[in-house]
Design brief:
The structure is a single chain. By secondary structure, the chain is mostly helical. It has one domain. It has six helices and no strands. α1 runs antiparallel to α3. The longest helix is centred in the C-terminal third of the chain and has 33 residues. The relative contact order is 0.14.
Length: 182
């Protein structure tokens, strides 16, 4: 698979993640300020917990995926030795994934919000991405082996698509429930 395919797929995934985030915001058109600035006092029902938790997860996923993607493209343009560039690339992608996981966790704790299944799955997938990035950092960045490269590409795409499915699940099901109730 060519690099152009992965770049195109990455842009499609980012666009769909932003679409899922916008859908969550539109579903809360009366409560948008509460989503951004509310806290525990605004989370009184189980549906509020799920709604806020999914919003936090979707926001963090969209923001960190976009920033990580832009950083990766920038790193690839740097004039560095091949191994230095690989090391910088994979360590940066690891830290972006790890900071994304920490952001989801921290925002839930700051807002005193329980973790909905979507947020937990985003954390698990983010930790999985961290593991994949560290394996690739070691094998490709330090050792210089291409042994894991194919699996790396497939795993990154699979994790990104899985994360997209997780953050999209809530707005899609909420939309259909709303239409069925009308």
């Amino acid at each position: 698979m060519s690099a152009d395919f992965f770049i195109l797929l990455d842009w499609i995934i980012k666009a769909l993640e932003v679409t899922a985030l916008i859908a969550i915001i539109l579903l809360a058109y009366q409560k948008v300020s509460i989503l951004f600035f509310g806290g525990a006092k605004n989370i009184s029902t189980e549906s509020d917990v799920i709604f806020h938790s999914c919003f936090i997860a979707a926001l963090v996923v969209a923001v960190f995926h976009y920033i990580g993607s832009e950083l990766s493209q920038y790193i690839l343009t740097l004039n560095l030795d091949k191994m230095e560039k690989r090391q910088l690339f994979y360590s940066t992608m690891f830290f972006m994934s790890f900071i994304g996981v920490l952001a989801i966790f921290t925002l839930h704790k700051i807002r005193d919000c329980m973790f909905a299944p979507a947020a937990r799955f985003c954390i698990y997938l983010g930790l999985g991405m961290c593991i994949v990035q560290m394996i690739q950092f070691y094998l490709h960045g330090l050792v210089g082996s291409d042994l894991f490269l194919h699996f790396y590409k497939v795993l990154v795409v699979t994790i990104n698509i899985s994360t997209l499915a997780v953050v999209s699940y809530f707005p899609v099901t909420a939309y259909f429930k709303r239409n069925c109730n009308e």
